[in-house]
Amino acid sequence: MSVNALNRLCREVLRDHAFRAAMKDNPAKAIEPYNLTQEEKKALLAGDAATLHRMGVNDFMMGYLARFGACGLNVPLYAERIRSVPH
Questions:
Q1: Which one-letter DSSP state was computed for residue 49?
Q2: How many other β-carbons are positioned within 10 Å of the β-carbon of residue 39?
Q3: In terms of residue numbers, what domain contains 50?
Q4: Total structural domains within the chain
Q5: Which residues of 63-79 are buried (b: 16+ CB within 10 A; e: fewer)?
Q6: Beta carbons within 10 angstroms of residue 50's beta carbon
Q7: Which pTM was predicted?
Q8: For residue 87, is pLDDT > 80?
């Protein structure tokens, strides 16, 4: 698994305005340079925060996706999905 790549990708949504726009417009194309497994790509593109959490992606970093509306997420939807994860 490439959890580090997923965490870096989330950070880039915060830091890189062009990448952020690409993640909103065409996320499948935007993530091509990242070395992600098919399972990771599927979860990311679906905005499946619970699955990404179980894979080890940092919850705080995933929040950047929601904050900037990437991968179909927004803050309320992200909060709902991440709360569904048993702790």
A1: H
A2: 11
A3: 3-83
A4: 1
A5: bbbbebebbebeeeebe
A6: 15
A7: 0.91
A8: no
